[in-house]
Write a structure and sequence with these properties.
Strand content: 5-15%
Number of strands: 4
Largest sheet: 2 strands, antiparallel
Radius of gyration: 31 Å
Shape: globular
Oligomer: single chain
Helix content: 40-55%
Length: 326
């Protein structure tokens, strides 16, 4: 009897000790779990800072960006574009149609190919965009500057919205600025800040390069934005942008109709050409009104091909092979 009681007592002691140990283990596990929970990321994605190289090549020149302000200036822009996903994806898609128009014009006028990225940061390659300062079009010309470089701006026509003509005007500006500065980087800064301001600040601050000037933030950021978006466009996969040919917008075939007489109703003209008024405006964003007054000039109006306006088959045209994975 005593032996049985002793066994029961020992058994109870063992059970109690086991429960204490189990409670301690549960407490430790609970603490560990809470610690892991506290340290766990709150989002499912991972955000890392893009590398900043010591040198970049732009406008056919190598630029050392190890100086603190240049390193940090570039870092800001490459980080911004890397994580500006929806907008940058759209830039690739639009560039598939717009770069084939811009690049030959730059080349024919002796302008470095990289200036196409200036158009990217100016307008996001939208020919209809207008800034709060009333700069308009792919190259964001003010009205007075547009007229100075040969573009027509009237109540019914705004050639700032014509990609070809505005690119030609931009080339005139860029060549004039290069004759003045002899540096494509200063040219780029002047496109944003104006030649008068850049020249004045170079003189007042006694410097030789726009990189060394104290300027408003928008103009200071400008060259770095060009450098950064070029890196993304040339290395999309590296910066997390994965597209296929079918994702890019296709260039749509058009024919040109020369017009020398006034058109009182562009809607009626569109119907005669077998397209909608909306399509006529989309393919000719320089048409500013519901009518066209030619004022003695001849204009070429683009008419889209009726069949080519549909994505009945996936797009296969890729302007730059680096933009699409196979």
């Amino acid at each position: 009897m005593c032996k049985t009681r002793l066994l029961n007592k020992n058994t109870l002691s063992a059970i109690a000790a086991g429960l204490v140990c189990l409670s301690a283990c549960i407490a430790i596990s609970s603490n560990d779990a809470e610690k892991v929970k506290d340290e766990r990321p709150l989002v499912t994605g991972v955000t890392s800072s893009p590398d900043v190289p010591s040198r970049v090549t732009v406008f056919d020149e190598q630029v050392d960006i190890t100086r603190y302000n240049m390193h940090e200036g570039y870092d800001r822009e490459i980080s911004s574009f890397t994580y500006f996903h929806s907008t940058v994806l759209l830039l690739f898609k639009r560039a598939n149609c717009v770069f084939p128009v811009i690049e030959p014009i730059l080349k024919a006028n002796g302008i470095p190919d990289d200036f196409k990225y200036l158009a990217v940061i100016e307008s996001h390659l939208d020919p209809r965009v207008s800034s709060p300062a009333r700069a308009v079009g792919t190259w964001q010309f003010m009205e007075s500057t547009a007229k100075q470089y040969g573009l027509t701006v009237t109540p019914t026509v705004d050639e700032r919205c014509d990609v070809e003509k505005s690119t030609l005007a931009a080339c005139k500006y860029l060549k004039e600025a290069y004759r003045k500065y002899g540096s494509w980087f200063d040219v780029a800064a002047s496109y944003n800040g104006g030649m008068g301001r850049i020249s004045g600040e170079l003189s007042k601050q006694q410097e030789d390069s726009a990189f060394d000037l104290w300027l408003v933030q928008e103009t200071t950021r400008y060259p770095y934005r060009i450098m950064a978006i070029k890196q993304v466009f040339e290395n999309p996969y590296k910066y997390g942008f994965v597209l296929q040919a079918k994702d890019l917008y296709k260039p749509i075939k058009t024919k040109e109709v020369s017009v020398s007489a006034d058109i009182p109703s562009l809607a009626g003209f569109a119907k005669e050409q077998g397209v909608t008024y909306a399509d006529l405006k989309r393919f000719n964003p320089w048409l500013r009104d519901r009518k066209l007054n030619t004022l003695g000039k001849t204009y070429k109006i683009r008419i889209p091909d009726a069949e080519d306006m549909y994505y009945k088959k996936p797009n296969t045209y890729v302007h730059d092979s680096r933009w699409a994975v196979k």
